[in-house]
Sequence to fold (237 residues):
Amino acid sequence: MLDPAPDTRSATGLAVRCSRALRSPWSRFSLLVVLLLAAAAAMLLLEPQRLLATGWPARLRSGGAAVALFGVVYGVCTVAFVPRPLLNLAAGALFGAQAGLAAALAGTVLGAGISFGLGRVLGQDALRTLLRGRWLQAADGQLSRHGFRSMLALRLFPGVPFAAANYCAAVSRMGYPPFLMATGIGSVPNTAAYVVAGSEASSPTSPAFLAAMGFIVLTGIGAAAVAWRERHRLGAK
Fold:
């Protein structure tokens, strides 16, 4: 007697259902959450900011290739939620004010671009279904219609978390070019202050160090004041 033929239709149907499930918006969003949690765990365990500040090879502290390599490492570290102020201080300490600023800005744009791409590909379809609240819809509309201007304001304001701005922009309909341009331009003032402070850390009484620290303190106070005012304004409604 002949053996019964395998039921290929059921196997094919199972494969199709699994493929659809893996491509679904919430499956991609779950993958994004896993990647971000893994990146955060790696940051806590490996402490890459300490490596950049103290363990960077001496032979890679000068030259364009060293600056470019630092920028790449900087960008990856920002995706892993390493605080940018620490990276900016390290850039200044390792390369000085000018080269350090170039490396830090390149890393900032690279890290923002990677986060934006991850959020757009893996999270946008799922998270846009949650934009039902009035404030969420207003933020989405602002970023979608006035992307460059809105992102520039977010980057200039030191109180907005870097990663939060990246993923909010990714969920909106904002385009890639205005996002990257606004990130690069808007990140200059605060990044420069930290880089200069890092480059002059060995001379804490120098005018450059004092000016940089004064700028950091004043912008921090301003951000805290604005946040406090907005909190009380919203609480009064």
Observations:
- DSSP finds eleven helices and no strands in the chain.
